[in-house]
Write a structure and sequence with these properties.
alpha+beta; single chain; 2 domains; eleven-stranded antiparallel β-sheet; 704 residues; globular; eight-stranded antiparallel β-sheet
Length: 704
């Protein structure tokens, strides 16, 4: 779910529609509407607009950051201490784990600055300011490409001395903004609970309620002697922030006002009906099929070998999350009025267009063009999605990443060859830490069968011809030779190839496998290039027409990984027939769910001991320890780790998930069903204090 913003820049600009629920909203924090702020104050907000967002004085925005280019996190101390979700830090924890020090399974708690673990490649980004540049961008776009416009405007706001990096963001409202971030790249692991606490319930409970997961991890930001971003150095000091969040122990109560600030990824609530159908029939269907198969194969291997569980921990988590999200979206959108509402809006739009000759001339054909081209690109796009999900994976990377070396060998470009070889060597050193050949063979065998079943023959990669002609359709024999006869199957073979690269590698089975997949994906993408251009052109016209038709209506733009604010209340739900959600869970639920035969529901003996004694310290309430709670705030992917604040701006929880009924939230928000799942900050502090006994962390926090 990470590193999407640049690639999807143009995509984000193109969406809008007439459909919007009254209570939804991921509002841009830099220009909050006064009526919106007053509505929040009416139900419990005690802060001014300037206390939420201010570019000249410390405000809430300065305590919230982008974590690792995909999540949200918040500052909780004057010495750069950071809270985010367990699942947001998971891959970084795995990165510094080993069989001897399995921090995923066992957790980790630093007892001093020296014990904090540096994390190579981990960054956090603070929003410094947001500047509207709509007119400048529109003028430049008349004569220049989007990429050139991005570069030209962004460089005006970049300051390497301050660590400032700028990003030009296009909004579905037709506006353009520059977001200026300060990026810190010395971030260290301070604490993380064991998986049995931080990810209690695993994939079984993912997107489900009730939940009892202490989904948090703790990091620290370091800076140079001038408190500016710097690469890792033992001389760096803990970052001294402009502000940080105090923590409230006042508890969570029904109907309490809550405020959440974060960086939601991408919503598609304003897409047209043809795009929505494509999302359902291609993207979500392909994800369910491919990720489901991947999980089925991998679970057996992980259950049989703890080493495989560690190596594939993050891949399994990511696949499971994608699978369940796609499955839920597929089912829930089909049950919702989303498609019917969009089609109704488009009918009304066409009637509005037809009523005026000038509008007819400008917008008259845009919907018909969209319908035609979406239908034409359906088959190749579905094949592309299936092949990408099933086969563009570990095994294919050996060949795909070798293509550059082969090209340089063919050109006899020795000056660049050494760089390419070293790049490959560095990639493999990192890749091999979380790779197992025997496991990969089983995954690839299953995926080859899946693609052959699902994809039309004319869209299959060329290696399927080898299976048919050389192996008489025997996939098992083909996969045995694919690995058994490949140079890439062993570290020794790869070292030998990199020491003396040769064009003979073009005959290697895994090279042929990877390149044939890559070539087919490029071919399929080319088949839809012109169709995509026609779609974008027609969509721009449709977007412009909708904005003209709905001029004056207050609408938040689609989420695009810029800082957003959402607000609401603590509360349960009755999302389905006969089903009622209470708004809070307790530690009792952990004990009730314990299953010693299921890795996802193991319970730490220490946690059971604390529960049995009711030793909850100051974090309990009425002899209970509350673990998680529900709110009706409007969040989506990217909001993971977002602070949940009370009306005073005090931290009361961390957002980490949504209920099953919210899985289609990127497309449709249903206020009576959609709920955000948040870990109660009291449970977080209980784990730090009573379970881990980490006074080192606790003493830095301002707890009210």
């Amino acid at each position: 779910m990470k590193h999407l913003k640049k690639a999807l820049f143009l995509f984000l600009v193109l969406f809008s529609s007439t459909y919007m629920m009254a209570d939804e909203g991921m509002w841009t924090i830099s220009n909050l509407n006064s009526a919106l702020v007053q509505k929040m104050k009416d139900i419990g907000l005690q802060l001014s607009t300037e206390q939420i967002y201010n570019e000249k004085q410390p405000s809430l925005k300065d305590a919230v950051m982008i974590f690792d280019n995909g999540c949200t996190a918040e500052l909780v101390s004057a010495n750069g201490l950071v809270f985010t979700n367990h699942h947001c830090g998971r891959d970084r924890v795995q990165q510094v784990s080993s069989d001897a020090h399995n921090y995923i399974r066992d957790g980790f708690w630093a007892g001093s600055r020296k014990e904090e673990i540096p994390i190579k490649g981990l960054t956090v980004k603070f929003l410094i300011k947001s500047v509207e540049v709509t007119q400048q961008a529109i003028e430049l776009l008349k004569t220049k490409s989007i990429r050139k416009v991005q570069y030209e405007i962004e460089k005006q706001y970049t300051d390497t001395l301050q660590g400032y990096s700028a990003s030009l963001d296009g909004f579905s409202t037709g506006q353009y903004f520059i977001s200026v971030y300060q990026i810190f790249n010395d971030v260290r692991l301070v604490g993380v609970p064991p998986e049995s606490i931080g990810n209690f319930g695993g994939e079984t409970d993912n997107f489900e309620w009730p939940r009892q997961s202490a989904d948090f991890s703790v990091f620290r930001i370091y800076a140079d002697k001038n408190n500016l971003p710097a690469s890792y150095s033992s001389e760096n000091k803990p970052y001294q922030p402009k502000t940080f969040l105090p923590i409230s122990l006042s508890g969570i109560h029904e109907n309490d006002f809550v405020l959440t600030i974060g960086f939601p990824w991408i919503t598609q609530r304003y897409i047209n009906s043809y795009d929505l159908k494509e999302e359902q029939e291609i993207k979500n269907r392909a994800t369910v099929i491919t990720k489901g198969k991947f999980i089925d194969v991998l679970k057996r291997e992980m259950d049989n070998d703890e080493s495989i569980r560690l190596k594939y921990s993050n891949k399994n988590f990511s696949a499971g999350n994608s699978y369940k999200l796609a499955l839920g979206t597929l089912k829930l959108v089909n049950l919702s009025p989303a498609l019917a509402n969009k089609q109704k809006s488009e009918t009304e739009f066409q009637a509005w267009v037809n009523a005026d000759s000038a509008r007819m001339k400008k917008y008259g054909n845009c919907l018909a063009i969209l319908q035609k081209n979406y239908e034409l690109q359906h088959n190749p796009k579905y094949a592309h999605a299936l092949i990408t999900g099933a086969l563009f994976n570990d095994a294919s990377l050996f060949g795909i990443r070798s293509r550059n070396i082969v090209e340089l060998l063919s050109k006899k470009d020795n000056s660049q060859l050494n760089k390419a070889v070293e790049s490959y060597r560095q990639w493999y050193a990192s890749f091999s830490k979380n790779y197992d050949l025997a496991t990969d063979q089983k995954i690839v065998r299953a995926m080859i069968r899946l693609v052959r079943k699902e994809v039309k023959k004319e869209y299959l990669p060329d290696f399927y011809s080898i299976i048919e002609n050389k192996y008489q359709g025997n996939i098992d024999k083909y996969v045995d030779d694919l690995y058994g006869k490949s140079t890439f199957s062993t570290t020794v073979g790869i070292d030998k190839f990199l020491k003396k690269p040769s064009l003979s590698i073009k005959e290697d089975p895994l090279y042929i496998f990877g390149v044939s997949i890559y070539d087919k994906l490029i071919e399929l993408r080319k088949q839809t290039t012109e169709l995509g251009a026609e779609i974008r052109k027609a969509n721009r016209l449709y977007e412009e027409g909708v904005r003209e038709k709905e001029a004056g209506i207050l609408k938040y733009p689609e989420a695009n990984f810029t800082m957003r604010l959402t607000y609401g209340n603590v509360g349960g739900a009755s999302p389905r027939d006969g089903l009622t959600y209470k708004s809070q869970t307790t530690l009792k639920g952990v004990i009730e769910k314990e299953d010693s035969t299921n890795y996802e529901f193991l319970v730490s003996p220490r946690l059971k001991e604390l529960y049995a004694k009711k030793d909850f310290g100051r974090y309990g309430e009425k002899n209970e320890l509350y673990t998680c709670f529900l709110t009706n705030t409007d969040i989506t992917g990217g909001n993971s780790g977002s602070p949940v604040l009370n009306g005073k701006g005090e931290l009361i929880g961390l957002a980490f998930d949504g209920n099953w009924e919210s899985l289609a939230g990127s497309i449709i928000y249903e206020p009576e069903k959609n709920r955000s799942i948040n870990v109660d900050i009291r449970y977080v502090l209980f784990v730090i204090d009573k379970f881990a006994e980490s006074q080192y962390i606790l003493k830095e926090l301002i707890i009210k």
